[in-house]
Amino acid sequence: MSAIQVTGLTKRFGTLTAVNRVSFTVPEGEIFGYLGPNGAGKTTTIRILTGITLPTEGTATILGHDIVRETLTARSHMGIVPETSNIYDDLTAWQNLMFTAELYHVGKTEREKRARELLETFQLLDRKDDKVHGFSKGMKRRLTLAMGLVNDPQLLFLDEPTSGLDVQSNLIIRDVIRDLNDRGVTVFLTTHNIEEANALCHRVAIINRGTIAAIDTPERLKQAIESVQSVELVFDHASPDVVEMLHRIPGVSEVRKEGDRVRLFTPDPGGVLEAAMASLKETGVRPLAVNTQGPSLEDVFVRLTGLDRGHNQKGK
Amino acid sequence: MTMEYSLHYFRNDLHGAWAIAKKDLVIYYLKPNIYMSGLLFPVFMLLAFAVGKSAPLATLIPGLIAITSLFSASSIEPVAIPIERRTKTFDRLLSAPVSLFALVLGESLSGLLFSGSICLMLVIGAAILLGTSVTSLPVLLSAIALSCFTFAAMGAVFSAYPTENVGEVMSLLNLVRLPLIFISGVFIPLETMPPWGQAVARCSPLTYGNDLIQHGFGGPTHFGIAVDVVLLLVFSALFLALGYFLYRKFNE
């Protein structure tokens, strides 16, 4: 049985189509990344999958339960961690957990045991009786995640879980996601952090303007756009003249300067490397290091969503 | 959602509604400043209507309690829900495995508990300070409970309006609440109203709440206890159903 099965899902708000005939399947036990630029339809998809919003067309089943016809059963199996830490500031951490557990019909003994374990996992046990309005952003985020887990869900929806967090909270949350997945929990993760998706997700879907642009493992997605290979040259000091010279090498589609690193995008890294070394030798500039790189998940994302990096481009 | 609804889910909804009511009381109402303003409102209303008039203060108490039940109970959700929409905690309620009925019922329960306790404090205060006597405590308690629940459910209808701005909901609510005071026999006895006035009064839940509360303090009832009770229950059910429908409609 699939954890999530989505077929032809469409959501229209008046004339705006926020999600357009989206279809995908997430097997149980997978960490599934859902990437897209702002306004792509990520949050609308999550709101449909969690039964908050009704789809205009199409179907979605959660662990075999139709989200429209069996909403309450489907919801009882899932945990939800929205983009905004939606916790009650005037309640203590403990009261927030107890309230959420009651909404999910977790028995008194069980909810107190779970709450204690979760507060310990998220390093909040010593603050359990403090009102949440005194918590830092990272602590609120950890508590939101704890509240999403209080019913011991089989499927966890995470909307931008580590966005803008401190390092400690980031590490704790990523470790918890991995531990949950090791225990068989399916995770549906939306994120802007492409490296996070690359590091955590088994498969990634890229959504743009309401439509799925690609779904595959991060590695396969990268292989699919081999034309975005690159040659990276590291200099002691990369002057504008050197960058301009490298830009003129035939076969280079884009030049990106990151500090003293210059990255030349090309479908032919061998040829470009040879030409670049010859040009540099003529000008007497010697690179400190040279690397060839395959496309990153970010490159895949940019290519598939048509985003403009705002860098020095020669055309696609 | 309707296809799967069963006794099991109804029981879960009742638990969920109780959890929501407790949460609301802790966050929004069990605070000294809220109770103080809840009590000061009827005290100032009493003074406004009593100053310069010859009628003894004690005779104004039943009507005052009826108005207090209307204003305090119907204000609960129109304040709480827009705040929860703004802080996004409303999504937590919408995405939990409880139906929208549990949400409407829970918010109405918190309205009943808060407003009911304010009304009881007024009853006790009036008895101590003004010597107001209660002739039928069961009738009075039932009248307060039914009125508060009905008006809390009425507040649920208005809180379904999809806004994060408390003022927007309250201004809509006041368009209904303020006329209700004048058409429900609180200030002008029903017997002295013209026939068309009496016909309009019959459409107001405050009419039946006021009638029952008056009877709890020993006054005559215009409609009889049974009619008052049944019609307050009917209004409650109508408001709960309309609130459920509107929440569903606005969350599509």
What attributes does this structure have?
heterodimer, A: about 325 residues, alpha/beta, Rossmann fold, Alpha-Beta Plaits, six-stranded mixed sheet, five-stranded antiparallel sheet, 11 helices, 15 strands, B: about 250 residues, mainly alpha, 10 helices, about 75% helix, about 0% strand
Descriptive notes:
The complex is a heterodimer of chains A (316) and B (252). In chain A, 36% of the residues lie in helices and 28% in strands. Chain A is globular and about 75 Å long. With 316 residues, chain A is of the alpha/beta class. Chain A has a 6-stranded mixed sheet, with helices on both faces. A 5-stranded antiparallel sheet of chain A has the order 14-11-13-12-15, with helices on one face. In chain A, strands 2-1-4-5 form a 4-stranded antiparallel sheet. The longest helix of chain A has 16 residues, at 167-182. Chain A has 3 domains: 2-77 and 153-222, Rossmann fold (3-Layer(aba) Sandwich); 90-146, no CATH class; 226-308, Alpha-Beta Plaits (2-Layer Sandwich). Chain A has 11 helices and 15 strands. In chain A, helix 3 (93-103) packs across helix 4 (108-121). The longest helix of chain B has 30 residues, at 57-86. Chain B contains 10 helices and no strands. Chain B has one domain (7-250). The two termini of chain B are 13 Å apart. Chain B is mainly alpha-helical and 252 residues long. In chain B, helix 3 (57-86) packs antiparallel against helix 7 (166-183) and helix 6 runs parallel beside helix 10. Classes of the chains: A alpha/beta (316), B mainly alpha (252). The A-B interface holds A 50-54, 68-73, 75-76, 80, 82, 84, 86-91, 95, 99-100, 102-105, 147 and B 1, 3-4, 9, 12, 15-16, 18-20, 22-23, 26-27, 87-89, 91-99, 251-252.
Largest interface, C-beta closer than 8 angstroms, per-chain residues:
A-B, 30 and 28 residues
CATH class of the largest domain in chain A: Alpha Beta
Question: What is the terminal separation of chain B in angstroms?
Answer: 13 Å
Let me know the number of strands of chain B: 0
Low-confidence stretches of chain A are 310-316
Number of strands of chain A: 15
What does the radius of gyration of chain A come to? 23 Å
Overall geometry of chain B comes to: globular
